[in-house]
Amino acid sequence: NVKYILDLLKKDIIPVVAGFQGRGENGLITTLGRGGSDTTAVVLAVALNVKRVEIYSDVAGLFTADPNIVKEAKVIDKTEYEELFNMSYHGAKIVNIEAAEIALKSDNITLELKSAFSPEKGTKVLKKVEEGKIDFKTKKFARAVTHIPDIIQISIKLEENIDEDKRRLEIYSSLAEKNISLDMFTISPGILMFTLNSEYKEKAIEILSKLNVNFRLRENCAKISLVGTRIHGVPGIMAKIANSLYREKIKILQTVDSHSTISCLIISKYPIRIYFYLNIICFF
């Protein structure tokens, strides 16, 4: 109910709304989690049917890579909500992922990400970028490279002469019951592979051991993702990535892709090198 806020605006009073807070299903006041003020701003924008939201932080906008790791990373001038959501999901910390998801579902909001400490214009996030009407700084296929550390890969060898689909379902369900989120699935006859955050390591080992599963665990992995709505249907992108990593002697352990992302699982000791290298081939 935004009537009170609208009444204040009609009186030329600027409302100051506390972010990071909301009301749960039980009616009690609760917090919205890390970055919840971003969510508050976007939810208010949708409810008030406003055209623009400005979010200020200590960085100058969205970067092509983490500027703390890649000093050559550049601010992205304009991008789309789908790319923003995927950047947030795959490790970029600039915007709360719930805020990005809400903005993705909206029809007419422009989100501007700026620094509170510099006059730079930051990043403009639009529902859909129309090529030819908006001039991008980059003409490359990807918009950004993101990084999620502390990943564990689990490889499972399924038993012979069993219903493999039923066995996989049992594994999925048992892990889900303990609120363990899985990612990067690879399924082939007799094999199941997936990844999870290292914080779930002990729980996962306990569950798989109780299921009498033959599994192998690889620690100290990282997930590197290329994000960009232009990568879909473009021949040779994965070949270019694989060739670049091969030349750097970086082994790809697993891959997963969507129409706007390509993710590679690698050993964690490599991210600084791979971050720099993929940023160069994708953006400069």
Automatic annotation (TrEMBL):
Molecular-function annotations in GO: aspartate kinase activity; ATP binding
Domain Aspartate/glutamate/uridylate kinase, residue spans: 3-110
Key words, A-Z: ATP-binding, Kinase, Nucleotide-binding, Transferase
Biological process terms in GO annotation: homoserine biosynthetic process; lysine biosynthetic process via diaminopimelate
One Pfam family from the record: AA_kinase
Catalytic activity, reaction form: L-aspartate + ATP = 4-phospho-L-aspartate + ADP
Keyword Transferase part of the UniProt annotation: yes
Gene3D superfamilies in alphabetical order: Acetylglutamate kinase-like, VC0802-like
Annotated Gene Ontology cellular component terms: cytosol
Protein name: Aspartate kinase
Domain CASTOR ACT, first and last residues per copy: 218-268
The species this protein was found in: marine sediment metagenome
Sequence similarity: Belongs to the aspartokinase family.
